[in-house]
Amino acid sequence: MHIVKRVLTIIGGLLLLLVLAVAALALTVRARPAATVLDLAPAAAQAPDPRPVLVFGASGALGVELVKALRARGQPVTAAVRASSDRSQLTPLGVTFVVADVLDAPAVAAALHGADYQAVISTVGCLRCEPSPDFLGNRNIIDAAKAAGVRRMIMVTSIGTGDSYDSINLITRVMLRRSLPLKTMAEDYLRGSGLDYTIIRPGGLRGPGKAPSGQGYLSEDRHAFGFIHRADLARLMVAALDDPHSIGRTLAAMDPGIRSPWQ
Q1: pLDDT tens, position by position, 160-174
Q2: Using CA atoms in the order 51, 56, 61, 67, what is the torsion angle rounded to 10 degrees?
């Protein structure tokens, strides 16, 4: 009996240490504000270019918010979706659909040749997909854009990619250990493509349960880390599309009012 009590005491002590360790790590998941902010012109109320924008990843949570932001100002949008994608949130927005799995290079090429697009925007990414589209899918989009003569591309990756790796905490590194190297490869591929690119790296993304603040910003600070609502990120993406000062830049996206994922 004495041995059993001792074993239980040891197990209890180990569990307490584990809880304390997890709590200590959780405290590191806090925002680190950017030292500098890139001031872009606000997104135009009316689409300055009447040509459509082609959005890959349009049926995802971020993609839907982006399409809403574009359509709200009358921008024609073509949503690239898989045959199995849920279109229920996109159909009421009045978009044109094209079926193209980003891992299918010929299908992506056909989508890019389907119209005279102003720009292509990729929100493609998946933590658990096999094979992952983070590099292969984005590479297909980049190659197809070049071949079709579409000069402008915006790609969403993540804070922690490439030279921003040191800005993320241990928990985030573990969670994104598979996708970050692939996103880094995609960023490098886009930079070397010759396209007029903008890379946007959001921090932790807030979902529909939280209201957007309208306070999100973009920064070239590689040490910044934060959180942002998807609707606010979509607004920044549209502003970057409109402002040529964003071309050739890699930008972190965050909301200064959100200090932790629990806020």
Answers
A1: 999 999 999 888 889
A2: 10
Contact of 62 with 234, CB cutoff 8 Å: yes
Model confidence over 186-212: pLDDT tens digits?
A: 999 999 999 999 999 999 898 777 889
Q: What is the pTM of this model?
A: 0.88
Residue ranges of domains in the chain: 31-254
pLDDT tens-digit map of 84-95: 999 999 999 999
The matching CATH number, chosen from 3.90.76.10, 3.20.20.70, 3.40.50.720, 3.40.630.30, for 31-254 is 3.40.50.720
Helices (runs of H) and strands (runs of E) counted in the chain:
7, 10
Q: Which amino acid is at 143?
A: D
How far from chain centre, in Å, is Cα 126? 10
Q: Which candidate, 153, 70, 152, 138, places its Cα nearest to that of 108?
A: 138
